[in-house]
Design a protein that fits this description.
Helix content is 18%, strand content 21%. By secondary structure, it is of the alpha+beta class. The protein has a single domain (13-302), classed as Sulfite Oxidase, Chain A, domain 2 (Alpha-Beta Complex). Strand 7 (201-206) and strand 8 (209-210) form a beta hairpin.
Length: 312
């Protein structure tokens, strides 16, 4: 199936938010004691006092930060639409209450509400690159917690090999589910050593506020060394298993979308090059980096997996 590549994101570079301006806004919000309630748009899950979260720059400070308006209005979320202008439609999704089901090889299967889970997690902010397989990219400040912390909270047992996550399915608010050609639900997964890598992240916020619905509220995976389709949105299910999952896009077209999906500019998609990318708001293409610029943190995960199809 041909992925659409519209030109709507080819906006002037002046629309990007300078990092200094963004940081000053965060500081002002903290100083005023306004928290998420004052700056969150209607329809977002609110978490008083949680945002903005403390910044963690251990994994770098890529820049320029993409303008918030671009990152929150140019989205892939096929449950709503296969177009990019879906943010209005996504506001119909109900995200409170929100329950995550944990199953598989764990001490005891359980369910946990999002607010209860968030209260137990070490919230921080990380600025990460995001690289879509469609060759557009962005740099955004995610708030959330290490995936490792969530794994520990779930208490896996007997050495599971994979973690599998699913996106919500609500036909009443997600018109895209009517497209029967797609293998719903949206499923993605990581090998356990990937999930326990320090770079793997669960996002609950964006730009110092609770994460918008169109970006995957109330919680989504962020694996910045992989193509963006691996970062499953609006998670409702987490399973620990020894069976490698067949993910959504892999099930739809395995010859084009593999399980690992690590970013590599030298390995083209069967229908287009991955050598360069176009940042949202930029008028020019830039070179793509191996593992999206995070090789120092993740390359070691794959030294014993060279027989695998690691990059697409």
């Amino acid at each position: 199936m041909l992925i659409k590549l519209p030109k709507g994101w080819e906006l002037p570079e002046r629309t990007a938010t300078p990092e200094g301006l963004y940081l000053r806004r965060r500081e002002a919000v903290k100083a005023m004691g306004l928290g998420a309630v004052a700056i969150a748009a209607p329809g977002l899950a609110l978490a008083d006092g949680k945002y903005p979260a403390p910044r963690n720059d251990k994994f770098g400070k890529p820049e320029p930060i993409t303008a918030e308006k671009l990152a929150t209005t140019y989205n892939n979320f096929y449950e709503f639409s296969d177009g990019k202008d879906l943010w209005r439609a996504a506001q119909k999704m109900k995200i409170s209450p929100w329950t995550i089901k944990v199953s598989g090889k764990v001490e005891k299967p359980f369910e946990v509400g999002f607010d209860d889970l968030l209260a137990k997690m070490p919230l921080e902010e990380r600025v990460y690159r995001h690289r879509c397989v469609e060759t557009w990219s962005m740099i955004v400040p995610w708030s959330g917690f290490p995936l490792r912390a969530l794994v520990d909270y779930c208490k896996p047992v007997n050495n599971p090999q994979y973690i599998v996550m699913k996106t919500a399915m609500d036909p009443k608010t997600m018109p895209g589910l009517e497209e029967v050609v797609y293998p719903w639900p949206y499923i993605e997964g990581l090998a356990m050593d990937e999930a326990m890598n320090d770079l793997a992240f669960v996002a609950t916020g964006l730009y110092g506020k609770p994460i918008p619905k169109q970006n995957g509220a109330p919680l989504r995976l962020v694996a910045p060394w992989k193509y963006g389709f691996k970062s499953v949105k609006s998670i409702v299910s987490i399973e620990f298993t020894d069976k490698r999952p067949v993910s959504f896009w892999e099930k739809l077209q395995a010859s084009e979308y593999g399980f690992w999906a690590n970013v590599n500019p030298k390995v083209p998609h069967p229908r287009w090059s991955q050598a360069t990318e176009k940042p949202l708001g930029s008028g020019e293409r830039i070179p793509t980096q191996l593992y999206n610029g995070y090789a120092e943190f993740v390359a070691g995960l794959y030294t014993n997996r060279t027989a695998e199809k690691l990059y697409m």
